[in-house]
Amino acid sequence: MTLPPLREVIARHGLSASKALGQNFLFDEQLLDRIAAIPGDLAGANVLEVGPGPGGLTRALLRAGAKVTAVEMDRRCLPALAEVADAFPGQLTVIEGDAMKIAPTEMFGSEPFAVVANLPYNVGTALFTGWLSGKAWPPQWRSLTLMFQLEVAERIVAKAGSGAYGRLAVLAQWRSAAKLAMKVHRSAFTPPPKVMSAIVHVEPVAMPEGVSAKVLERVTEAAFGQRRKMLRQSLKGVPGALAALEQLGIDPQRRAETLTIEEFTGIARALGQAGA
Ligand code: SAM
Fold this sequence. Notes:
The protein contains twelve helices and nine strands. It has 276 residues and is of the alpha/beta class.
């Protein structure tokens, strides 16, 4: 069964883009196929798509052979998504609801899944930080392939020493590999957003030993909370942190943005050993 072009689907179902729901749709099939290829071979793989809207990216994921579970809040999109499900029998499950409130285990049990989404910008960072902060590691997700505003994507993949480097970079890279997979021009969206976008691809890697996520979070929060200050000032309120700097030979006159991720995890490890 051939599906009608997305623009026709939008018109037929009256899917005018809602600003409140962060709706900016992608229609270019070639671009959507390139996005669906970023995670690698998806044939037979479980994929969670958040915010399928009228289903452009969903179709591309299904063409790649994925088994897609798509969570959409806007019930106006459901009839269009039902047509997509009919065209790919047994491959698509649509859940009406708020992705922030649905646990992956409800959708996938204990099976691994990849996340691929052109996320609504307002919920994107919250979902992303939640997925990266999970206690269990490696996590149930095997990769995250997500659209962000370019400026946020740059913060996620930033390296030490750059202005974009901060808490988000440490969170995304201390036990994952994060790369900027593709820039997407604003004109690719309908309606075009004000800013440029980019797709980030994240895969989990081994967690450094002896590092507590909570302690690391406390250190980065303090260090980047006063990012222009020297560490001896910004880390003053974290018990044991200044002793950890000395133990590791890290100059307390440095600023947070000069510290590599290994240096941050080293501080967190030392604090953990000291019982912090
Ligand atoms: N994936 C489509 C595309 O690429 O053309 C639509 C992308 S649009 C930027 C974001 C979609 O996410 C919208 O369809 C919106 O209704 C949906 N959405 C917004 N907040 C959501 C939430 N909390 N849970 C699930 N879907 C949400």
